[in-house]
Each structure stands twice: as structure tokens, then as C-alpha cells.
Amino acid sequence: MKAKRGIALTAAVFVVSPLALGLGIILLIAASDDDKGGGGGDFDLSAAGSLRIGKGYVPAQYAGLIEKAAAECDAGLPASVLAAQLKQESGFNPKAQSYEYVKDPATGETIKRPLAKGIAQFIDGTWASSGIDGNGDGKKDVWDPEDAIPSQGEMMCKLLKTAKKHPGYNGSPIELALAGYNAGWGRVDEYKGVPPASFADGQTYNYVKIIMATVESLTAPNTSGDPGTSGGWGRPVKGPLGTPYHQQGGAWSSGYHTGIDFAVPTGTSIHAVGPGKVVAAGPGGAYGNQVVIKHADGMYSQYAHMSKVRVSTGDSVSGGQVIGLSGETGNAFGPHLHFEIRTGPDYGTDVSPLPYLRKKGVDI
Ligand SMILES: [Zn+2]
């Protein structure tokens, strides 16, 4: 549990809300586009992606610390998630200091006092319990990224392990861990998932959403991911792999992920993985705008959450042909391509996509 930088002008007398989350976050998210509550949906995660380093992305001097902190977690904590948190918390500024404003009970005056400190924006209480001496110099220093980033990593790792024990909760394990980091795990338990937008003015809900969206931008583009063709077969999109097939989680109606996700921004070209005939093109419920293609071997490929569909039912398509653009329509937690291989045209007939594509000669 960790209060965030934030301007909590409150009459509550010297009570620090664990949820004084950043004003910046609230301003960034003018309005939540989703009132369905919870963190539900299909989220993106470039778990295997390396950090995108450079101006506007991850500063080179912190990349190593972030990658090490992630690698030390044996629960599969992506470095890009830690990086996205640091960007959101402090903009990678190790001197970041946020304040809160509280009313002095004695004088009735509003006073300003320090709240969260350093690159990972720890408040004193959390730092006292969770801060570690990451660089082994004999002192744990909240202002030192060599201590703060490993501490953040360790906290997130513990939360991620806890989250994985709750596959029925609403949200992926990473989303649950982020919500726990923001609001305290007790709140995640209380809501059996990411707290809804109605909780604490959407602070936690939006925090999770922003981090998940930022993760993509801080992940290095996968340069080997050109949608090349191999006998007319290729990748559906150029972009890193995210949530794998059959990952369990309460976000999916089947209880597990029925496809694979590619972490790509809205507007990325989506290619037919192979030649075939379009059997569905348009709104598909939770899948948002989708395309389903029947291939000559009797199998089907499906592409979901698209922002634009550029083919129609009945069209013949060639392998590699652009069939639309990626997006986040339907039940999607941020932009990505959800991709399935199926034995039939409809939901519930999914098989593991990667082995299928590899058998077609696709290098993926
Ligand atoms: Zn998906």
C-alpha cells in the first residue's frame, strides 16, 4: 500500500489516505471511457519485450536497474511494467517530491507537507516496511534509484505472486498487482479484482489503465516481427507477443485466454495470416470489430478489437493482405490485437495459435 503524490486537499485531519493518487493521473485521464467497472477485459502485456531506451522512453541510466529488478522476480514480472510505473510516478526523476495539503487541527490552517519521495514515489510508511538496500551500501535511501527501484520490484513481485493465487478475480495478475500497489491488496480482495471506476474517483482504476497502456510504449519494437510471408503465411501484425494462449484469469468469460495478444498501438496494420475467405467482418460483441477468415485447410483465424475493418464477408484475401487496423473496441483493456486460431468460425473452437502458425512456416 502506497500513497501517491497527489494534492489531497482534505479536511480529514492528518489522515493520509492510502489513495492520494496523482493529480497528474486524474488530469491525464479526462474521462474514463468505461463504466463497466472492474479491470475486466483483455489486457496487453509484452512480457518478453525488452525496454525501449531513449528520450521519451526509458532513460538509459535506469534501464539496467529496472531490468535487474524484474529479473530478480521469479513470478514473471516484466521490466516494462516497472518502467511504466516509474514513468507515471515520477517521470524517472529521482528527486521527485510530492506534497499533500492537510488541515492543522489546532489552528485550522491548511499546511503543506511532504508525501511521496523519489523515483518510485514511496511514502514514509511504505518505505519503512518495504524499502530495501538494493545496492548494499549499508543504507536504504528512498532518494537513491539503486535502492528505490529494487524495492519497487520486490513489492510488485510479492503482489504479483498474491495476485496469481486469485485466478477468479477480475483482471490479469499484473493488473491486480498494480491495483494492489496503488490501493493496497485489501482493496483488491474487497472488490475481487481491480477496483471499479466508482472507487476513489477512479484513481486506482485509471492507474492500472495508464500503466498498462504505457507498458506498450516502453517496450522495444520487435524488429524481427515483420509480417513476412512464408508460402503466403505470416504474422498477423508487426509487434511483440503479449498475453499468451490459455492464460487463466477472471477477465475472460471462458476462464482463460482463448487466443494470443500482440501489443500494438491503435492503427497498426493487421494482415491476414494466410490466404482464405472472410466469413465475418464487423462488430463481434466482446471482441469488438473483428474479422474471421476461413482457410483452405478448414481452420479459421480471428482478429479482434479492431479500430477499422477493411474487408467484407465473402471477400477472398491473400496471405499478408491488410484486413484492417488494430484498436481497442469491445472488451479490451487498451489497444492490442487479439488473435485466435479456431477449428470453426465461432467462439469456443479455439486452438493454440503459435504451433499452428509455425507449422505453416511462420517464424514466430
Ligand atoms: Zn486477447
Task: Summarize this structure as a short list of keywords or feature phrases.
single chain, 364 residues, alpha+beta, Lysozyme, Glucose Permease (Domain IIA), 2 domains, seven-stranded antiparallel beta sheet, three-stranded antiparallel beta sheet, 9 helices, disordered N terminus, binds zinc ion, Cell_wall_metabolism_enzyme, Lysozyme-like_dom_sf, Dup_hybrid_motif, Peptidase M23
- Uncertain runs: 1-44, 222-231
How many DSSP-defined strands? Answer: 15
What is the CATH third-level topology name of the largest domain?
Answer: Lysozyme
Going by helix content, strand content and strand pairing, the class is alpha+beta
The residue-averaged pLDDT reads 82
The helix content is 25-40%
Count of helical segments?
9
Question: In the residues, how many domains can be counted?
Answer: 2
Under CATH at level 1, the class of the largest domain stands as: Mainly Alpha
Morphology call:
elongated
Largest sheet: 7 strands, antiparallel
Q: So, CATH architecture of the largest domain? A: Orthogonal Bundle
